[in-house]
Each structure stands twice: as C-alpha cells, then as structure tokens.
Amino acid sequence: MAQLWGGRFTGETDRLAYRFNASINFDKRLFHQDIEGSIAHVTMLAKQRILTEEEKESIVQGLQGILEDVNHGKLEIDDTCEDIHSFVETHLIERIGEAGKKLHTGRSRNDQVALDMRLYTRQQVQNTDALLKELLGVILAVMEENVETYMPGFTHLQKAQPVTLAHHYGAYFEMFRRDRQRMEDIYRRMNYCPLGAGALAGTTYPLDREYTASLLGFAGVTQNSMDSVSDRDYLIEFLAALSTVMMHLSRFSEEIIIWNSNEYQFVEIDDAYSTGSSIMPQKKNPDIAELVRGKTGRVYGALMSLLTTMKGIPLAYNKDMQEDKEVAFDAMDTVKDCLVLFTGMLRTMKFRKERMAASAMKGFTNATDAADYLAGKGVPFRDAHAIVGRLVLYCIERETSIDKLSLKELKEISDKFDEDIYMAVSLETCVAKRLTTGAPGPEAMREAIKQYRICLES
Question: What is the pTM for the complete model shown?
C-alpha cells in the first residue's frame, strides 16, 4: 500500500480502513490535472531556484513519460496507491530516483487536490457550456422554421391562448441561455489558483504563486490559505447550476412526453430516441425524455449531498471533503449525457403542425381575443368577459368552437358581433397582433430570433 505519510506510523493500517480512506478508484480521473499542476509547480520551483534546472527537467520528463504511458495503456492506475497524487509521485520516484522526491517541495496534498479539482471542474464548466450552446443552436433552428406554426399555449395544463412553436421554444432558449450565463459566472469566480496554500498556512519556501497561476491559465491566486484548501463553494455553485440545467431539461422533457402522447400527437420522436414494449407491439415510448426527467433527481441529490457534507466542517481541511468527488463526477457525467441525448432527440423530432393548430382552435384559445373584440366595439371588458364566457359554454354544449358558429348564433349572445369577428378570432390574427417585445407575433419573434442568433455567434 503506497502511502506518502508513513513516517509517523509504526503499525500497518487496517486493510478495510485503508480502502475506506483511499480515493484512487474515483480521483484517478484527476490524473491529467495532477500531472499538469505538478509540471507547473516544478517549473515555478526552478524559476525560484528552489530546484535546479536539471532537477526540473528530470521531473518534467518523468511526469510526461507517466502521462504518455497511462494514455497509451502501458501503465495502469490501480488501487495499490492511496490516491492519484501517491500514484504519480510513486511512479515518478521509481523512474527518476531522488529528484522525484523533490516534486512535493513547497506543496501539500491539501492544496494539490484543491488545484486538481479546480482544474477539472473548470474544464467541466467549459464542456457543459459548449453542450448548452449546441442545444441552443438546435432550439434556434426550430424557431427560425416555425414562426407561423400555431399551437395552444397553456396555463395549469389547460389551453389558454394561441402561440407559435417558435414562441414556445423561445421560452426554453431563454432558460438555457441563462444556464450559459451561470457557467460564465462560475468560471469567472472559481478561476483562481489555490496552489501554494500548503496544508493550511502557506509555506516558508519563496514560492511565486502568481507565476504558477499564470502557467495554469488562472486569473490570479486565492487570497487566504485556509480558505484555499477548504473551499468547495465553486463546486456547490456548479452543482446548483447543473441542477438548474436538469430542471430545465426535465420541464422540456415533460412537455415532449405530453406532446408525444396519443391524446396530443404533436410530435413524432425519432426511432433512435424511442423504445418499444416487450408485450404491447403498438407502443413507441419516449424513453430518453423520461430518463432525462428521471435523472434530474440524481443531480439534485449530488448538490444536497455536498451541501450536507460541507455544512458542519470547521476550518481548514477535513477528510470529509473527499466526499465531494464521487457525487460531483457523477452529476457532471449525467448532465453531459443528458444534454447530448436531449439535443439529438430535439434535432430529429418531427412536428405535426396541422394537429397543433387544430388543437389550438378546439381549446378556445381565442376566447380572450373575442372579449377584446367586444371591448373594441365599446363593451366594457368585464361585460365582454362575461359574454364570451356564455359563448364558450354555448360552444361546449354543442361540441363546436367560436369560429364555427354562424353570425346569427353569435348575435343571439351579443348584437355587437359582426362579420369581422371571424377574422378577429382566427389563429393568424390572434398571434399576429401581439407585437410587444417578448410576444409571439411574427415581427416580435423575428426580432427575438435575430438577437438570439447574435447571442450564439458572440
């Protein structure tokens, strides 16, 4: 059992306790970050004349050799070492000898793991942002093609007013655009280097922390050594943002599941993102949408787990903080998989436009416009509201819609109705006259699409 802290101990660690304490089985994914951070660290040590140039070159070549061998399958990361840091240092010493023992000069595993996790999370933030951008591109493409594709808008899952598919998708564009903004905020706040903080109180070596930070692409260095090794705020923020992404994906998935149902039949999900039934041959199930919806709770769980882990930890580092990784890694992987699959499903999904428009007409989504019509004829809106309410009840009793009634029937309810009522309550008119910013009217939507395109291209 390779351990870097054995000098203080004379007895063997219990095997179960060793396995319980070890993190190699999950922190091995920090391998690249550990090598990257170590190369930057020894480069700085040589610059500060803490190491000689020869020692630095030997260490860097050794680290690069380990990296290459692992990448090409010549060296396996196994559980004979306690963690990824022990693995790298043990193999470095085996390869280059005494110089390898100087790798850890001016560094603790506390600031080392803090660095590795920041480097890894920073990359995950960028990867998630790229996937969100790809999803937004698919959403925008649907919007551009469906500015005049009419469908019912809902409140309380009841048909409310007519909108367009472009307008409906635009709501999700806004959600996922805010998710990208959260990624940008998190990246900016977390992009500071903790290396050099030591175990908790810095080091007596004359380190140039700013130089190390610049080598690793950080905006600067962390300002308090105790906070540097015990901070996981950035990770909590990222998990909170990922939970919000999943909430948005889950809402969208729920709608697709509803739209895919036999009752609605608004969409046809591609076979690649559907499955059948083992007993019912007619079934085509929206499994990907359902799994995205289901995995949302898994990501929420990661956030709650880390919040709970951190809530009672005194300064500075405590072993509890090792529990940040497994749940965080799982959440990051889950969200990326969900974004890739959801984007593919959306890209290949077909729309039944005529059925969507027919559904909007059958649900009295033009009732508000009928009331507005009467108000335009001088009827007080509250009275117009009551008149149209009676009109809707009349239609329900006869299983028809407002636009299907004869002018005679309409006038029996209010003499203010005239021939122009039919144009006033058509889906095209109901949508087209809504021109305020953010509304579904074609002009408003084309302007929104223009702004969204600029947003994606920037």
Answer: 0.92
